[in-house]
Design a protein that fits this description.
single chain, alpha/beta, Rossmann fold, 9 helices
Amino acid sequence: MDFKGKVALITGGGNGIGRAAALGFANLGAKVLVVDRDAAGGEGTAGAIRQQGGEARFVAADVTRSAEVQNYVKDALSAYGRIDCFFNNAGIEGSVKPTVDYDEAVFDQVIAVNLKGVFLGLKHVLPVMVRQKSGAVVNTASVAGLVATVGMSAYVASKHGVIGLTKTAGAEMARLGIRVNAVCPGPIETRMIHDLARQISPGDPAAAEKRYQAVIPSGRFGTAEEVAQVVLFLCSDLAGNVNGAHWVVDGARTATGASMHPPAN
């Protein structure tokens, strides 16, 4: 996996899986554009890459706004001239409540970030790749895009939608030399999983996390770096005939039908 001379664009790159992927791309030679609405986190990721001798820029953007998505695409082209790899990753967890009690405004926000944000990324990045006649996209879905997660109606709906977008865009782009795939993390050791544990068990989130890990066959949460390695593979030439697919990284959780409350990334 060699990304020398290539440009990687990553949304949600300020922390978690996005940060791990940004560092991974940079370590393999890519120039990286980090996108996040969290300026401190995004600048932190870009700064870490530069400290290690890599080349990186940060652009603040709300992925739910078409104009801001267009802006980060323009910034990537202005700085680096092309976009070879697009990790369409930004996402939020929302609330943990039964569907009948789920707040409508929170539902709209989760769908806007997790699904519309991915759509807008595809809408504005794919034309660049079409002009280049090359490119690879990885959307962040989730095991919650494959199975139900109790109390997470908005998140589950959004991630099922991401898989649908991935299949459609992959089929549309296949003859144009462009690949579109999705990664489906299980519970990962990031801020999101800790926030969900606090929502579900405010008095003892650590105990909730232990219960979740106990039903994962691997017996642990995954790491952001483990997911990032799959993203790097899917963006590399090694995955040249992988298109419209979703790759599960969940310690065999979905293989066994294990049930748990937290979503996937």
